[in-house]
């Protein structure tokens, strides 16, 4: 899989537009017409959404500095990517590696204030027999523009679990490119978006099965309210020789507003024999009969919508295996319904 080189924030000529197929739903060039000035340094305030879970805390503010971390044994690491700027831009770089057999719980938060432009580039290498669980909470302001590009590489027998939750921004794209480089790698990549107002989010992923007997499971759920726009683009590629691959992808979304929009593009490209691959996509609305039933029993329309939305989205949250992490994520989501 090629290294990430989507665009350079310092060169407006490289900003992708809707003419680029992978960016057809998220026209960055239309939003960013010129290179933003570099964001100044800023202090990091507060303790972040994962504070109660402990572990080592690694922080970047407005892209100044970089993070290079190597995990051994069983560890918890919090990575805080903080933006606090007005009409400026910055790039943050993070590199995470594991040693063979290590077990890493990576708690990643994107926190922001202002109308900044943020470009986050993240590399994650999971060594043979190692396990990485990556939980990402993205809480950015309505006027922000942000692009996160992550490249994940799995060695033999590596295990990777990813869950991303976001509330969107003016234009927000979260992209994960994952490669099964060796026999028997196992990945699960889940996502959840809850949008309101005019917010936009784009959850894009490309999974490349290069070797035999790899597994990938992917579940993404989303809700778009008012005039917001949710985008899901998922591609799974099974290369020649990757026999025994088991790859499954599903995207389910609700539109809760007459002017809200959902764009979904699931893809499977298969060059190998003896594989099990499937994808599915549904877009609908909240069940009016269920809403009526709940209101008839004294629940307000607003409460009923929140309860049904929470029940719909919780399937993604419930797949988080760590009880304490799942509780924190549930509280984060409930507060934003």
TrEMBL record:
Residues 84-312 form the SUF system FeS cluster assembly SufBD core domain. InterPro entries: Fe-S_cluster_assembly_SufBD, SUF_FeS_clus_asmbl_SufBD_core, SUF_FeS_clus_asmbl_SufBD_sf, SUF_FeS_clus_asmbl_SufD. It comes from the Bacteria. This is Fe-S cluster assembly protein SufD. The lineage of its organism: Bacteria, Pseudomonadati, Pseudomonadota, Alphaproteobacteria, Caulobacterales.
């Amino acid at each position: 899989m090629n290294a990430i080189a989507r665009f350079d924030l310092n060169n407006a000529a490289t900003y992708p537009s809707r003419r680029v197929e992978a960016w057809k739903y998220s026209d960055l060039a239309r939003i960013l017409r010129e290179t933003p000035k570099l964001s100044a340094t800023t202090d990091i305030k507060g303790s972040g959404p994962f504070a109660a879970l402990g572990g080592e805390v690694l922080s970047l503010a407005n892209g100044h500095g970089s993070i290079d971390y190597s995990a051994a044994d069983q560890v918890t690491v919090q990575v805080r990517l903080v933006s606090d700027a007005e009409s400026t831009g910055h790039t943050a770089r993070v590199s995470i590696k594991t040693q063979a057999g290590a077990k890493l719980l990576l708690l990643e938060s994107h926190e922001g204030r202002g109308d900044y432009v943020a470009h986050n580039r993240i590399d994650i290498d999971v060594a043979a027999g190692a396990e990485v669980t990556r939980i990402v909470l993205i809480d950015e302001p309505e006027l922000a523009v942000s692009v996160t590009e992550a490249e994940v590489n799995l060695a033999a027998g590596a295990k990777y679990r990813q869950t991303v939750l976001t509330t969107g921004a003016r234009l927000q794209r979260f992209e994960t490119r994952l490669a099964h480089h060796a026999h028997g790698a196992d990945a699960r990549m889940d996502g959840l978006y809850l949008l309101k107002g005019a917010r936009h989010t784009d959850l894009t992923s490309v999974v490349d099965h290069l070797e035999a007997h790899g597994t990938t499971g992917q579940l993404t759920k989303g809700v778009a309210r008012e005039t917001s726009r949710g985008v899901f683009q998922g591609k799974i590629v099974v290369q020649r020789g990757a026999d025994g691959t088991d790859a499954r992808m599903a995207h389910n979304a609700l539109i809760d507003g007459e002017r809200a929009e959902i764009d979904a593009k699931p893809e499977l490209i298969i060059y190998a024999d003896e594989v099990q691959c499937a994808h599915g996509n549904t877009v609908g609305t909240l069940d009016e009969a269920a809403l009526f039933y709940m209101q008839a029993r004294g629940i307000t329309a607003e409460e009923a919508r929140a309860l049904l939305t929470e029940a719909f989205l919780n399937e993604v949250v419930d797949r988080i295996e760590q009880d304490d992490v799942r509780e924190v994520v549930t509280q984060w989501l409930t507060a934003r319904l």
